[in-house]
Sequence to fold (469 residues):
Amino acid sequence: MYSMFGSTVAAISTPRGKGGIAVIRISGEEALTVCEKFVSPKSGKALRELRASTACLADVYDEEGGTLDEAIVTVYRAPRSYTGEDTVEISCHGGVLLTESILARALACGAVQAGPGEFTRRAFSAGKLSLSQAEAVIGMIDAETRAALTLSRTNLNGAIRRKTDAIYDKLKALVSGVYAVIDFPDEDLASMSDNEIHDGIAEVVHALESLRRSYKTGHAVCEGVRTVIFGKPNTGKSTILNLLAEKERAIVTDIAGTTRDVISETVTAGNVTLRLSDTAGVHGTDDTVESIGVRKSIEALEEAELVLAVFDLSRGLDAEDEEILAHVAKRADLGIPVIAVCNKSDLFDADANNDDIDKIGKALGTAPLLLCAKSEESRDTLVERIEALFESNDVFLADQAVITNARQHAAVSEALGHATCALDTLDVLGADLACTELELAMSKLGELDGRQVTVDVVDSIFHRFCVGK
Ligand SMILES: Nc1nc2c(ncn2[C@@H]2O[C@H](COP(=O)(O)OP(=O)(O)OP(=O)(O)O)[C@@H](O)[C@H]2O)c(=O)[nH]1
Ligand SMILES: [Mg+2]
Fold:
């Protein structure tokens, strides 16, 4: 089969190290020719005589014709292979020297070393995968939670591709409908009314908005939410980090100022991944080290996508808490989600502290969570609150298109911007000018799933893969 890549590539597809088996993959126009120089099926048949997609036991030879290994060899024929090209997979014993020697034979016999993600890139170029599906392959490999795995699996099955195809087709129908009437006025083509065009664009806007919103969940599940635990000293911030991490990650004492630096930990809160930062307690101080810690706490707050603002109501709200409230309220005003934690609930009476609880709730625009961070049972309460913010249970709804990375989010946002602009343009300037915006929306959607994507973008995506995938 013709390959746009020309060369035949080879790589070890399993991780480096000792193992039961290892797989060397060879793909390209010359895959069979390359492998026939050092692989012989035990049956005596030549590799190219084997039925496609079948495995056989074979001898693998070194350069002197000695046997390197007995391996299971699978031959795939274009286009019915992962890459869409002729492919041979050699499953040998999983020794480091052995696999490297077999790869070296493949390279000596005419293959070239595959780059990172090159097999998947070939699959993309052969039209076997869209760009979002290729990204889902990375997601499957990187997944550290069931939820991330589920989302990646759904996207590998083509959930984003189907959704973007549907929006793209709708846009195409609108644009071609309008242009046909403008370009061929004498053809008596049924023209769409402005209302029909308006409704069509509104439908596209709605679909893009829902896709863009899905990133809230996709980001939380697959990339993780930068989360800061913020408050004055001794309120129980490090206790909350340890509660979420389910281990003693940070030192906890009753001495105010125990944590002096930012302590980072990645934890799973139900379906959501949190990139947590526990910070030094923020308060006025002349101590040089402490004041550096306070500055870092504020920097972490400013970078956070979720804030856990911690108060100790057993001591009542004081001027330092007011300062914390002011800092956090600024983030809340910018739309950053905040969970206000009134900690040490075992030491205060909610009714007696109602005014403080109200005050925090009003300042941060969210009902505070009364918590006893010392008790392990509190973890579920906190996790439930976090999960609700990111709607991560939707992950398990069948076949939902959920976008999972910043590149996809940017493309959807830009497509949405153009579609919204088309709606405004339609009312003021008419359908033909609105179509210019719709075409731009189509091109952004094309970037999302790889119909119209630059080589640079494709390069940067596939460089995130390991060699051999
Ligand atoms: N009774 C009770 N004590 C708690 C609770 N949470 C934390 N503490 C105690 O409060 C004290 C301070 O806890 P830390 O987690 O070190 O507080 P912090 O906010 O990290 O303090 P700094 O690092 O100094 O800013 C420790 O003695 C904890 O055991 C709680 O829910 N109930
Ligand atoms: Mg601490």
In short: The CA atoms of residues 135 and 200 lie 30 Å apart. The domain at 9-130 is CATH 3.30.1360.120 (Gyrase A; domain 2).
